[in-house]
Amino acid sequence: MFKYNSQLYTDVRIEKSFSTNIRFRQKEMENFLEREENGVFIRIYNGSKWYYSSFTDIKKIQQEIDILSDLALKEKRENDLLEEVFEINTGDQRLFFKEKVSDIKSSKKINLLKSYFPLLNQEPLLKTFTATYLDKYIEKEFVSSLGTRLKHDFQYAGVIFGMNFSNDNDVFQEKFSFASDDFKRLNTLTSKLAKQIKDSVNFLNNAKPIEPGKYTVVLSPSAAGVFAHESFGHKSESDFMIGDDTMAKEWKIGKKVGADILSIVDDGNERGMGFCPYDDEGTSARKTYLIKDGYLSGRLHSCLTAALLGESGTGNARALNFQFEPIVRMTTTYIEAGDMTKEELFKSVKEGIYVQSIKHGSGLSTFTLAPSLAWYIKDGKISHPVKVSVVSGNVFETLSKVEALSDEVELLSFAGGGCGKMEQYPLPVGFGGPYVKVSELMVQ
Amino acid sequence: MQFEKYTIDERQTSVSIENSETASLRRKNIKKTGIRAFDGKKMGISGFLGNDGEAIAKKKAVENLKRGVDYRFELEQDISRNEIDIKRKISDDELLKIADNTTNWISCEFDDFRFSGRFFTTMNKTMLENTSDLSLSHEIGYFSMYYTFKKKSSTSIFDGFLSYSGRDFEIEAFKRYSSDLLKAYDNKAKSPSSRMPVIFAEEAVLGKLFNELNPHLIESGSSLLSGKIDKKIFSEKFNLINGRIAGVDLEPFFDSEGVVPDNGIFEIIKDGVIISPYTDKKISEKYGFKKTANASSAYDGMHSPSPQGLRMETTGNDLIDVINDEKCILVVMASGGDYTSSGDYNTPVQLSFLVESGKITARLPELYLSSNIFSMYGEDFIGVASDPFRKGNLERVFGAYMKISSQETDV
Description:
The structure holds 2 protein chains of 2 kinds.
Chain A: E1 9-25, E2 28-45, E3 50-55, H1 61-73, H2 81-85, E4 90-92, H3 106-115, H4 117-122, E5 126-144, E6 149-166, E7 171-180, H5 190-206, E8 208-209, E9 213-219, H6 221-233, H7 245-250, E10 264-267, E11 287-292, E12 295-296, H8 303-309, E13 317-318, E14 327-328, E15 332-335, H9 342-347, E16 351-355, E17 358-363, E18 366-371, E19 374-378, E20 381-387, E21 391-394, H10 395-400, E22 402-405, E23 410-412, E24 419-421, E25 424-427, E26 430-433, E27 436-443
Parallel strand pairs in A: 4-6, 8-20, 9-16, 15-26
Antiparallel strand pairs in A: 1-2, 1-5, 2-3, 5-6, 6-7, 9-27, 10-11, 10-15, 11-12, 13-14, 16-19, 17-18, 18-21, 19-20, 21-27, 22-27, 23-26, 24-25
Chain B: E1 2-18, E2 21-38, E3 42-49, H1 54-63, E4 69-70, E5 79-85, H2 92-109, E6 113-130, E7 134-151, E8 160-166, H3 171-185, E9 195-201, H4 207-212, H5 215-220, E10 240-242, E11 266-270, E12 273-274, H6 281-287, E13 295-296, E14 304-305, E15 310-312, H7 318-325, E16 328-333, E17 338-339, E18 344-349, E19 351-356, E20 359-364, E21 367-372, H8 373-376, E22 381-385, E23 397-406
Parallel strand pairs in B: 5-7, 9-16
Antiparallel strand pairs in B: 1-2, 1-6, 2-3, 3-4, 6-7, 7-8, 9-23, 10-11, 10-15, 11-12, 13-14, 16-19, 17-18, 18-21, 19-20, 21-23, 22-23
């Protein structure tokens, strides 16, 4: 297909994408966008450095390979590390091309949004709303000098309702978001949206400031998923360990890092926003336990990090789009279920906070969650809404303070947003978990 | 039928650093063009990448008028202006040398740290042309870089970061700043008193204010600033404008509708008084707010009002005097904080330094900061100034008095 320099490793990723963005503000359409983009990303490895090129003219692929090869040959080093870990997959592995979101008429997408307008207009304290429909179908062709010839695809369709509530005394902004790889599922959101509107009105009218301090916190499945992603997922991305003896020692597999009941998984095979059956190096997805029963069990890899650490690839080398190189990223990250019912878990909290929805999270040595809807728990029952700006805790202390898990896992996919790592944002990811009870988190 | 062509042409080379060594070189060349069709009532758009595709995009833009968005405004016309704002072109080889030399220097000078990061040289050209003789073009070149750093003995992914962006790379200024900060890193100070001047990079503090200045929220009563237009609610020293500040801004001199401010400035907040939310043509007319030339769009998207390009005005020497005369906190990493619906602000601070007599002297323990949107820009506002620690750095600093509490005890 292309001529490669035999002294260098080369791969070519060709991406063809279709996306839609339709936005209404109340009844008025503010944006209608259908976009088709084609682009190429080339990587060449000379044994010590990578050489990349990103461009849009598919006719120039060979020319760019030749330019990069000349650059790379100047500092060529003997190094066949990559050959040992690359998974050579071939074939047409597309799953969605018979039911592409790009084949759905735009009028159907517009009507989908409009079908939710009566519900959004019904609540007098919901003063204004935006309704956004997003979709994307992306087809990737990946070829390499080692023999990979792979074609695969990914898609999602989603809605976001941004809602602005106000009464005479207060204002409150909340967002409802949902995404799926199946457009039809977007027609089934009425009861969930109605509940979120009702909860938001309750919050607007009754929320009290929280007394800052340490509380037992119950995380909803979405908050638990973000907690897993931020508190531990990023620390499982192995690129930060390369060449760092301190980290290799600190992150030794088998080390106790959390409560006995805690298991955290990353799995690109789970359908949704984190679905990634092949990563951007052509490696197939697998279920990776990051923590199993409280013990460090695995980490996420690209081919290079796997080779350098002497471990196996995990299918986690992902690029934001054709403009970027793949780096180690999560796919769908979640906490596994425990053995309590949701009701039993709430009953076990004498006094605490329930975080129902969140605006964002972050995870360094201290992880943070910024709740949107939060509630006070008194004697095992939800009492009243509380205004909380941030919930935070030391990552490792907190992982050990996970006291209870409910017995069902919910995996969630949201439209818009995603995971950020350095310049590559927002990458679609999935996350979730059961209801999670954690003691002694700082609430402000 | 009228047409507009909106083009964004980005050429960028970047060099990545991993574990204090050059790891990769990336060349990027992405040209994006949107064709807009107008029939006096609606606007239809279609876009393409690269150089081929204009005829097809034009046809699709006309087709998209059927479902297009209402747009009944006159296009900007009869203006021809081209600006080139490039101080120095940095070649790929030069960038590699800059990255290598800087990384060699910092990793030798501070050999108990590891450094990763990226160096960029970017050339952006934005063009807007239409069938009413509008021809605007803005070309800008700039340099930017960042390092994340960690102590070799540290078990964190990273402990902090260093960054710089400018028309050129003032390497001596970057070295001085990096040396001061990394030397102070090992000098640990105790958690400071409960209220102190706090210095942030300006970008870190404006998000909530921009959200509350959203014209739709203000009009609907859903913003903390609703009902406060023409009222003085912030410090009289606090000014927010849409206007390019020479040597600071990277944005073009026109918005996505092609509006070029006559005197270079639209006022949003003047002497602490809210003058107007940010608007585009449609929103200004719909709600009766002032025009502020804040239309923004993707290359192939519809216009919408955006805070992009809004800037706080610098406030004389107020902040610099405080930095030189009082003990201050310089915030380097404060990730994960947010506001409540009442405007109360809390954030954990992962990395900050004590500044005494204008010098970075010691690292502070992890702490919490709290304030409120009205006091942060009101009675507690100190000022805005060019970065006193990194000469030539584009990002300025913001200062306000805030409540400080230790992460261990006194929340």
